[in-house]
Design a protein that fits this description.
353 residues, alpha+beta, four-stranded mixed β-sheet, 11 strands, hydrolase, metal ion binding
């Protein structure tokens, strides 16, 4: 076995015993199949070949040898440490090969680009795909329980019993019944149920909770000027229910937290600004995609039922009338919105595609 001159002369560095923060100057030498450390305080330490592992050097930083479970030898003599590791056969061929790759700057840059591309691809396409697959595998009973708990939470925090008369509610349900029946026949795995609630906080709104619970606020009912407008809104919310968007949102949120924790190694980092902003932007993108999917579902259903898609456009114009203001602020608000822009949605229903 050939040994480099620097190893014969000894490799100078600092020894950390892993029990205290202090370092002790040391000289490392090969002694048979062991590493001999001569410490500045007169002590001599020996480490078997199996206990020695070469650490990775980043850039021009010092390198080090892992010694046992906690100790380490740090030195600026990178070549000397590598020669010791090779001599002890503690650093196998893969480690040496990896070390050489690490010093190849072009390859490092290419690897960085590949890793970033994989990360972006995973967040943009991988997380939505996996969340969709997982959401469809969840038991229906679990989704129904989540929906009931969500409805109870809404009643505690933001909604109250509807102020519409019982006769009015029954009349609305009668109007919606043919559409609900058609949807049930098309999607027998989804039990759709309409709820009416009053809410000053939510205003004119409608939303889908897990388990096929579709909620209309009283203000949304009052906003509608035609029964078919409510059918159009019902079809949109049914699209959320059929595609299990609520459950997918829950799964996606959990997956994003997992990705952020995996990248940072810190659970608390998921709420930090640096990691939280990308997660927020990804979530907004997912939600816009779900709204577009629900719009597609509603448009196809209205056309099949021979209901003019203009009905959806009409109520959307009243729900979110155009302000007539355009500019960078509007572009930013659109980028940060959970919904596609209202003009785009209206145009889609007006043109029918």
């Amino acid at each position: 076995m050939s040994v480099s001159p620097s190893v014969n002369a000894g490799v100078s560095g600092h020894f950390f015993d892993g029990e205290s923060s202090g370092a002790c100057a040391a000289i490392a030498r090969l002694q048979g199949n062991q590493l001999r450390l001569e410490l500045d305080d007169g002590r001599v330490e020996h480490f078997a070949a199996a206990q020695v592992r070469l650490g990775m050097q980043v850039g021009s930083a010092k390198s080090y040898l892992h010694l046992g479970e906690r100790a380490a030898l740090e030195s600026a003599d990178v070549a000397g440490l590598q020669a010791i590791a090779e001599g002890l056969k503690a650093a196998d061929g893969g480690t040496v090969w990896l070390r050489r790759l690490e010093l190849n700057i072009p390859l490092v840059l290419v690897s960085l680009v590949v890793v970033l591309a994989m990360l972006v691809g995973g967040v943009v396409w991988g997380v939505p795909w996996l969340s969709r697959e997982l959401a469809y595998q969840l038991p229906v009973a679990l989704e129904q329980r989540a929906g009931q708990e969500g409805l109870d939470a809404m009643d505690r925090l933001w909604t109250s019993p509807s102020t519409l008369s019982e006769e009015r509610q029954q009349a609305l349900l009668q109007v919606m019944q043919p559409a609900l029946l058609a949807l049930q026949q098309r999607h027998p795995d989804h039990r759709l149920k309409v709820h009416f609630r009053a809410s000053e906080a939510l205003g004119a709104n409608a939303f889908a909770l897990p388990g096929g619970n579709l909620v209309f606020t009283d203000d949304m009912i009052e906003l509608a000027q035609h029964d078919e407008e409510l059918i159009a809104v019902l079809a949109h919310e049914a699209g959320h229910a059929v595609h299990r968007h609520s459950m997918r949102n829950l799964v996606q949120g959990s997956l994003l937290v997992f990705v952020m924790v995996s990248l940072t190694g810190d659970v608390s980092a998921a709420s930090d600004l640096v990691t939280g902003v990308p997660a927020l932007l990804a979530t907004l993108s997912y939600q816009r995609g779900m709204e577009e999917e629900a719009d597609e579902f509603a448009l196809a259903f209205l056309q099949d039922q021979q209901i003019s898609p203009q009905r959806f456009a009409d109520i959307m114009l009243r729900l979110d009338p155009p302000s007539g203001e355009e500019g960078e602020l509007d572009e930013l608000s659109g980028f940060l919105s959970t919904h596609p822009s209202t003009p785009e949605r209206i145009e889609r229903f007006q043109t029918g595609y």
